[in-house]
């Protein structure tokens, strides 16, 4: 059995939080989620995002987009 110390619970946040992190608008974030461009779940009429998962996804997806200086 896993305890809360050994299992990290995802922190689900709204589109505004992800928009703030990525310097985008909430409508852009929901459009990206709707089109499957960023990981998200929809609960009733509201999109929710696992903050850590979104940031890992963005980092992995775009890490090669810009060369390291």
Note down, in words, how this protein is organized.
This protein has 69 residues and is an alpha+beta fold. It contains three helices and three strands, in the order βααββα. It has a three-stranded antiparallel sheet with strand order 1-3-2. α1 (15-22) crosses α2 (26-34). The chain is globular and about 40 Å long. The model has no long low-confidence stretch (mean pLDDT 86).
Features:
single chain; 69 residues; alpha+beta; 14% strand
Give the gist of this structure.
This protein is of the alpha+beta class and 69 residues long. The protein has helices at residues 15-22, 26-34, 51-62, and strands at 12-13, 41-43, 46-50.
Q: Please compute the radius of gyration using only Cα atoms.
A: 14 Å
Beta-strand level of the residues, as a percent range?
5-15%
Unreliable segments (pLDDT under 50, ≥5 consecutive)? none
pLDDT average, as an integer? Answer: 86
The quaternary state of the protein chains shown equals single chain
Structural class: alpha+beta
Helix/strand layout:
Layout (H helix, E strand, L loop, with lengths): L11 E2 L1 H8 L3 H9 L6 E3 L2 E5 H12 L7
Helix pairs in contact: 1-2
């Amino acid at each position: 059995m896993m305890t809360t110390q050994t299992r990290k619970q995802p922190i689900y946040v709204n589109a505004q939080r992800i928009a703030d992190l990525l310097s985008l608008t909430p409508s852009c974030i929901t459009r990206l989620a709707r089109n499957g461009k960023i990981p998200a779940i929809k609960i009733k009429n509201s999109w929710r995002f696992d903050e850590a998962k979104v940031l890992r996804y963005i980092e992995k997806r775009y890490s090669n987009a810009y060369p390291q200086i």
